[in-house]
Write a structure and sequence with these properties.
CATH topology: Aconitase, domain 4
Low-confidence stretches: none
CATH superfamily: Aconitase, domain 4
CATH architecture: Alpha-Beta Barrel
Oligomer: single chain
Structural class: alpha/beta
Length: 193
């Protein structure tokens, strides 16, 4: 995972409500334990016809939306079954932050464990973001703020441990492995005592 301290990007908007994990990554792509290639499967049924050709009218396929790292989604994003693959698909697709008025709890937990920041904002901020696709916004993980183009700064909640992992670019295991010296010192102190 790459550290995420500050991120500026234009937004990609999917205004639909209740985007569930099966829409994010259809079940037929859940046969792997590898993240490789899952970006191609992100929103596959929205992006591709049955023959595999791209749907040109899909916002996810439009050239001006390529490379955008912040997804603004309708209310109740990530609902449905718990699938870490959904998070993997989004991050492999290039999404680093998801913003919604409500994010499903299990999805949020999976996201934070895998370097994807899921932010909940108030209804007015959410409505503004939905109405202004392509807005240039900035996310500051250290201060837990979202900066809008009109100068507003919106605070968001983030678990302190998850924030540390995002800032350092590690998952929980990586964080623990980074504490090797402190663990060794603790064990040594116990042996001496």
């Amino acid at each position: 995972m790459n550290p995420m301290q500050q991120l500026e990007s234009t937004t990609l908007v999917l205004a639909e409500r209740n985007i569930d994990t099966d829409q994010i990554i259809p079940a037929r792509f859940l046969t792997t334990t590898s993240r490789d290639g899952l970006g191609q499967a992100a929103f596959a049924d929205w992006r591709f016809h049955a023959d595999g050709s791209e749907k040109p009218d899909c916002v996810l396929n439009q050239p001006e939306n390529q490379g955008r790292e912040i997804l603004v989604a309708g209310d109740n994003f990530g609902c449905g079954s718990s699938r870490e693959h959904a998070v993997w698909a989004l991050t492999q697709f290039g999404i680093r932050v998801v913003i919604s008025s409500r994010v499903a709890d299990i999805f949020r937990a999976n996201a934070l464990k895998n370097g994807l920041l899921a932010i909940e904002v108030d209804g007015d901020t959410h409505a503004w973001l939905l109405a202004n696709p392509g807005a240039e916004v900035a996310v500051d993980v250290a201060s837990c703020t979202l900066a809008l183009p009109d100068g507003r700064r919106i605070g968001f909640e983030l678990d302190p441990f998850a924030r540390t992992c995002l800032l350092e670019g590690v998952d929980a295991l990586g964080y623990l492995l980074g504490q090797d010296d402190a663990i060794a010192a603790f064990e040594h102190a116990r042996e001496v005592a």
